[in-house]
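From the methods appendix. Each design record in this collection lists the tokenized structure first, followed by the designed amino acid sequence. Records were kept in a plain field format so they could be parsed without special tools. The example shown here is representative of the layout used throughout.

RECORD:
FOLD TOKENS (130 positions):
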């Protein structure tokens, strides 16, 4: 003898449909808590960021890094980039389309880290990390 299957009742369907609707609404909630950006220096315009450092006396490698940094800064200024004073090692670059890029700068003990330059244009896709 074959067992008869019970028909699915309307109440049973409604229970699962309402559960599905609640899950969908929660998944589409755009007002979720966003991480705090309090510790970040927020940059939204066409700028370059660099550490103000001088080469150590007698260190030819640092002198070369410093010279290259000054050449890059001159090139960026010719292309209408503005200097952004580095007040914090945590930077948040915000593009015009709302995308954000967080950069936490490494320590500036070494020669290359001391003279690095970050160029940012909110209209462009790429960063220039030198």
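DESIGN:
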């Amino acid at each position: 003898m074959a067992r008869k299957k019970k028909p699915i009742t309307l109440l049973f369907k409604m229970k699962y449909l309402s559960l599905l609707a609640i899950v969908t609404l929660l998944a589409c909630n755009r007002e979720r808590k966003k991480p705090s950006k309090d510790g970040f220096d927020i940059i939204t315009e066409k700028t370059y960021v660099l550490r103000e450092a001088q080469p150590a006396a007698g260190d030819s490698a640092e002198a070369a890094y410093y010279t290259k940094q000054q050449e890059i800064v001159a090139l960026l200024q010719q292309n209408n980039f503005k200097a952004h004073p580095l007040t914090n090692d945590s930077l948040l670059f915000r593009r015009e389309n709302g995308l954000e890029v967080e950069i936490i700068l490494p320590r500036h003990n070494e020669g290359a880290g001391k003279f690095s330059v970050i160029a940012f244009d909110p209209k462009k896709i790429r960063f220039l990390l030198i």
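APPENDIX NOTE: The longest strand covers residues 90-94.
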